Fold GDP-L-fucose synthase.
Amino acid sequence: MNGSAGSVGPMRVLVTGGSGLVGRAIEHVIKEESGAREEETWIFLSSKDANLMSAEETRAVFQKHRPTHVIHLAAMVGGLFRNMRQNLDFWRNNVFINDNVLQAAHEFDVVKVVSCLSTCIFPDKTTYPIDETMIHSGPPHETNFGYAYAKRMIDVQNRALFQQYGRRYTAVIPTNVFGPHDNFNIENGHVLPGLIHKTYLAKKEGKPLQVWGSGRALRQFIYSLDLARLFLWVLREYDEVEPIILSVGEEDEVSIKFAADAVVEALGFEGDVIFDTSKADGQFKKTASNAKLRKYLPDFEFTPFRAAIKETCDWFVANYDSARK
């Protein structure tokens, strides 16, 4: 193994946000797909273990576990409509969390941190496809500027840590993630889990399915288990400070209507589907390039969209009572 990730002895990996969608997927790959290597210890933190908005609690949890590596997933997150209402909260809470985690990692001599950004941090007015060099080249979409700027600051801090201390901390930028253990809340969740929950209820109640927006907006979706496998590669092999987009290709971008059709099929919903055009579509598209990822991993195979939707819907039905919603 090359690069800084290979130069340490036993790896102790601390995962913040370990009980969320991506954290659970990484845990699944580590435990069920024997993704862990010998001499690796994995610690998955949830908000119950430490309030990362507190510098003291963050330091205490690093003191306790003494990680050599960190995957930083913890964030205050929400869908379009919650972001529009709470930009200040999204800015402050995420700035505190990110600064506390990156500073504690530096103080405790963590070899590598991989943080998780989001494609919504990219400039609103831009050319497509978006790539890694364009993060700071214009203001983000006004609906979620608080969250977007807070996430962009991770990249600023990583570059400064590298310049001043030679730290190789980096970040990944996934497109829309979905999968088991998502937040299926209809009001505050993201588009796909919200659709899955709504379709489930519409089927149960024998009512039409109401999809928010026109259905024409385009998105690239990545299955959480695919993302987890890529996270492990970034942690062990990717040696740049500059972020890397983790996404399916541009050709795999789908409309919300196509996604809704896949959910309807997976859940066996046979009622009417109505698109409520009085609701916002958000950004029409955010097409991201995965050329950099493909340069490193030309042969990585993504789970086909419909198969991943089916697995997610089956999980939701089986875990309906305990799922976040």
